[in-house]
Amino acid sequence: MKRPNQSGAAIIETLLVILIAGLVGFVGWYVRHSQQVTAKALDAAATSQTITPKNSATTTVGSTDGWNNYSSKVGAFMVKYPKDWIGPSHPEFCGDFLDYDLEIGPDAKSVIKCGGDGTVSQVSITSVAGDKRSDYLYNFDKTLYDVEPTTKITLSGITGNEFNATAHNQSSYPAEGLGIFPDGTKIIEDVFLEAGRTYVIRYTQEPAGSAQASTDQLATFKLIRGTFSFQ
Fold this sequence. Notes:
The chain is an alpha+beta fold.
């Protein structure tokens, strides 16, 4: 027959074994649970993480930080354009034209020189008093241009018309040499009438190999246009 103190020790040992087993089970469950929570958090972070290109230090697409701020009191508009873009090399030949007109491009050959040289700027913004929309639209004659359907465009809450055209067959035009575009030249004109003034925002891209050909600046043109405001 067991003595009472021996029976009590056996009970305590049994309880200790049960307690230890319970603790081991709990620790195992807790470790597995923590691993699952950590894995889910890592997956979520990986899903939402933005991948940065290797050349991110030089990638500025979509940014107008550091651009020139241009304001025309006569033309009644404001706009920003890239800091390294230039205007006419001899503005003195332009008269008062530049008081209400902005002529810019990435290099000298893509900017008008004035003095009747017959060139146009890759990007230009014109503003004149009155409803002069018919005067400031290119003559998109279908014998000289492939013309796309007119669309609407809204800037600073004002809606105007956008014209897209591609030049063709202009070498035989009677006024050859002045305002004649090489085949394949693409033109965009955004025309607005606001507060009694006509505004024309124009982009011209001549094809590679032509005298005024410059790099494709359509994306930059759209950024410039996006900073435009009526004053």
